[in-house]
From TrEMBL:
Protein name: Gamma-glutamyltransferase 2. Threonine peptidase. MEROPS family T03
Residues annotated as signal peptide: none
Keywords, alphabetical: Transferase
GO MF, one example: transferase activity
UniProt superkingdom: Bacteria
UniProt-listed Gene3D superfamilies: 1.10.246.230, 3.60.20.40
A Pfam family that the UniProt record links to this protein: G_glu_transpept
Lineage, top ranks: Bacteria, Bacillati, Bacillota, Clostridia, Peptostreptococcales
């Protein structure tokens, strides 16, 4: 496939965006404009990505925050680098400790699912290693937005209202008062077109910027987090924050029809997308709108998820290796299970043989694929008093099954759902892509990759195309524009097809491709308030 031809292909519902000097693609116009502002000020794509990421904690707090995690894939000087800035569980937490409190499963809200937030440290190490500007400059737009206020866009307002209703009905303890004071200051969720500001958020970002993140992990902000946790019998302590360091990792990949598709290794579940693509690479696909194509995609996805949910954990505790899960032999075994009827997936044995995504690029060739999340919307429901820091709830993904690779343990990273993607060809960057949305993410990655490589769609077409989502057993959600005749044919193969109206659960993505001449071509998500800022 010729990516240059693909970039200039017509036919999408919306026009793709082109640029020469730089491009930032996000789910929020103000975040994309902030990234462009930093590019124009002399920053590179890494600086722009940091600026956009920090702004997203303000303009889209329904999906991410200062108290969350982030991951990044960075292409610079001909090499792809991976960053895992996801935090570990507190050193004092344990299954025994939870049992003493009568807890038999990890809750969604409150202090128990809170792990160390990695986002501020991720910004700091990206800036130090690859950036050109200090955090005091790259975080300035986010600080301005938080202090002066931002206007809510339609999709953010919808998610905010949904979260408010759930939290109002569920979160009854005094520890949750800060969330309502911060995110529902008028006694309700702000609506579309209303202005929301958070001066505490601005002050926190200023402290992070002035200290390169040190205030959050070893200074005054860490003290406030520690004090809040102690007050409500949480496990997180300043010592946990002090010991945290983001980890530079080697990205993992599979070759799919001549293109290398890259993901971050576990504890993230990008490997699920790679396992599915590895299985699918053994088939030929000529038409997207064909029941057999969709059937094979769904079956490969189900088999990959079954393995992912059994084996993905903190790499130190995984019972199998990445190499085993991505081996040709194992892919062939899993591929052989795909027949004409829908499977109820089970894991195999390879040993025997609330999220935001953004992409950025500059004219020097730097490209960034970055993802950031608080998980389940606003996260734990906890906001550290006087800081605007909404803490995430990533620990909810741990299991209490002692025989599982992902069992809860002190100082351990949980199974993580946020994944950035990247494509290269012949050791040259094609570009970053991503589709956020918890367990939709690997499924979105597979669909975007196949839309691009197998079905020759340009970036905007690849994102506009209708999506499916396997949700368990033989149940598959499809979007309203999913062709009825295909749904009927899939039902005859044993799939339970359920049309859904809320397309926000189908993920929200961004794409930037670069051609051989350096031209940048971007697509943005139609299911949210996404935009591309180009220069």
């Amino acid at each position: 496939m010729n990516f240059d031809a693909l970039i200039y292909r017509y036919g999408s519902r919306r026009n793709v965006v082109y640029a020469k000097k730089g491009m930032v693609a996000t789910g929020q116009p103000m975040a994309a404009q902030a990234g462009l502002e930093i590019l124009r000020a002399g920053g590179n794509a890494i600086d722009a990505a940091i600026a956009a990421a920090a702004c997203l904690t303000v303009v889209e707090p329904t999906s991410n925050g200062i108290g969350g995690d982030n991951f990044a894939l960075v292409w610079t000087k001909g090499k792809l680098h991976g960053l895992n800035s996801s935090g570990k569980s507190p050193k004092s937490i344990s299954i025994e400790g939870l049992a003493e409190r009568g807890i038999t499963e990890i809750p969604k809200y409150g202090w128990i699912p809170v792990t160390v937030p990695g986002a501020p440290a991720g910004w700091a190490v990206l800036a130090k290693r690859f950036g050109r500007l200090p955090l005091t400059e790259t975080l300035a737009p986010a600080i301005r937005y938080a202090r002066e206020g931002v206007i809510l866009t339609p999709n953010v307002a919808k998610l905010w209202e949904k979260a408010y209703k759930e939290y109002k009905a569920t979160l009854k303890g005094k520890e949750f008062a800060g969330w309502f004071e911060t995110f529902a200051p008028r006694g309700r969720a702000p609506g579309v077109g209303e202005v929301w500001a958070s001066p505490d958020h601005a002050k926190t970002l200023e402290q992070i910027a002035a200290t390169d993140g040190e205030a959050f992990y070893r200074g005054a902000l860490a003290d406030k987090i520690d004090q809040f946790s102690r007050e409500y019998n949480g496990f997180l302590r300043k010592g946990d924050l002090e010991e945290f360091e983001p980890e530079w990792v080697e990205p993992i990949s599979v070759n799919y029809r001549g293109y290398d598709i890259w993901e971050i290794p576990p504890n993230g579940h990008g490997i699920v997308a790679l396992m599915a693509l590895k299985i699918l690479s053994g088939f030929e696909f000529h038409h997207r709108e064909h029941a057999d194509t969709l059937h094979k995609q769904l079956e490969a996805m189900k088999l990959a998820f079954a393995d992912g949910q059994k084996y993905i954990a903190d790499p130190k505790t995984m019972s199998v290796t990445v190499e085993q899960l991505l081996s040709e032999e194992y892919a062939a075994k899993r591929r052989a299970l795909i027949g004409e009827e829908a499977l109820t997936p089970t894991s195999g044995d390879p040993k025997s043989g609330g999220t935001v995504y953004l992409a950025a690029a500059d004219e020097e060739g730097n490209m960034v694929s970055m993802i950031q999340s608080n998980y389940m919307g606003f996260g734990s429901g906890l906001v550290v008093p006087g800081t605007g820091i909404a803490l995430h709830n990533r620990g909810h993904n741990f299991t209490l099954d002692r025989n599982h690779d992902n069992v809860l343990a002190p100082g351990k990273r949980p199974y993580h759902t946020i994944i950035p993607g990247f494509i290269t060809n012949d050791n040259q960057a094609v570009g970053p892509f991503g589709v956020m949305g918890a367990f939709m993410q690997p499924q979105g990655h597979v669909q975007v990759v196949m839309n691009t490589i197998d079905f020759h769609m340009n970036p905007q077409e690849a994102l506009d195309a209708y999506r499916w989502q396997w949700v368990g057993g033989k149940t598959v959600y499809v979007e309203p524009d999913f062709p009825n005749h295909l749904a009927l044919q899939l039902a005859l193969k044993g799939h339970e097809i359920i049309p859904i109206l809320d397309t926000s659960i189908m993920g929200r993505g961004q794409i930037i491709w670069r051609n051989e001449n350096g031209a940048l071509c971007g697509g943005t998500e139609p299911r949210t308030d996404g935009t591309i800022a180009a220069w």
